[in-house]
Amino acid sequence: MTASGAPAPEPVADEPATPSMTARTLRRLRAALVTGSLLTGALCLLVSGRAHSGTDAVGGRAAPALLRAEAAYGALADAQRVAVHGFLQGTVVLGGLGDQYQNDIAAINQNLAELAGYNVAGPAGTSDLQLVEGLVVAYNAEIEQAAADYQQTGELTRALPALWYATLQYREISGALDRLRTQGRATLAAQRGSAWLAGTTDLLFLVPFVLVLVLFARTQFVLRRRFRRRSSTWLTAAVLALAAAVLWCGQSLHTSHGHLRSALDGPFVEAVTLAQQQAGRSAAAAGEDLFAVVAQACPAASRSCGTGLTAPPPGPAAGGTAEGGRRPGQAVAEFTDGVAEADAASSRRAAVVTLLALAAAAASARALNPRIDEYRFGGR
Question: Which keywords appear in this protein's UniProt record, sorted alphabetically (predicted)?
Answer without folding.
Answer: Membrane, Transmembrane, Transmembrane helix
